[in-house]
């Protein structure tokens, strides 16, 4: 039996619940399979100010996958999250999960088998709330979820758009609304200009905002003096230096600096 059907069949034993839905390929694969199985799953999208996509875009994505409902929960990050400790994701996820209705229904998420074993402090919060992760349970890895999600009807552009902007700011540096807004604006400028959904605008410290690019078209775009000035005007609101990284964008670099054990 292929993994798509295995994922659909998983819901025969889990027919009701809430899904932490972020519109990316992982949670889209989970929602699409649930809809194919006829499960009574309510997708929940959390607006905590760290999103790159909008509620309207995520509603479209949910409908693409067969769900006419999307429960939007507005969450104001608490001070612990704003202070951005190395266990930020644990505190953030715990706060989010506390807002999900506690009515005895199961909670699902899009954690994949690829996430297991990596530095994922948010996994501790998932365990505390007994969140079920069908992709991880079935051994489905991140590289497989894109094909699954698209086969269920996900719009790949919307899946690539959503991303947590809190991860762009180095640990111990505050997650201020001004910094998040600058990051969101700069990244969306590249999405619009070059289709570079994997651009990452990072704040390394109080003085340095660094932009990681992933497409040749993005590097070409910064050759335009007016575009560079636009980037600087936005970035200089929150940082002294605004730079372009010569290395392609990559995930979880800040995590490599954490001393584990």
Widest sheet: strand order? 3-2-1-4
List segments where confidence is low: pLDDT < 50 over at least 5 consecutive residues.
none
Q: Tell me the total number of β-strands.
A: 7
Under the CATH scheme, the architecture of the largest domain is: 3-Layer(aba) Sandwich
Q: How many distinct folded domains? A: 2
**Any idea of the CATH topology of the largest domain?**
Rossmann fold
Task: List the SSEs and their pairings.
Elements: H1 3-10, E1 16-20, H2 25-37, E2 40-47, H3 55-64, E3 71-74, H4 79-82, H5 88-99, E4 106-108, H6 122-128, H7 134-137, H8 142-151, H9 156-161, H10 177-194, E5 200-203, E6 208-212, H11 216-221, H12 225-235, E7 241-244
Parallel strand pairs: 1-2, 1-4, 2-3, 6-7
Antiparallel strand pairs: 5-6
Question: Summarize this, please?
Answer:
The protein contains 12 helices and 7 strands. It is an alpha/beta fold. Helix 1 (3-10) crosses helix 2, helix 2 packs across helix 8 (142-151) and helix 5 packs parallel to helix 6 (122-128).
Describe this structure as you would to a colleague.
With 261 residues, the protein is an alpha/beta fold. 42% of the residues lie in helices and 13% in strands. It has two domains: 155 residues, HUPs (Rossmann fold), CATH 3.40.50.620; 93 residues, Alpha-Beta Plaits, CATH 3.30.70.
What keyword list fits this structure?
single chain, 261 residues, alpha/beta, Alpha-Beta Plaits, 2 domains, 12 helices
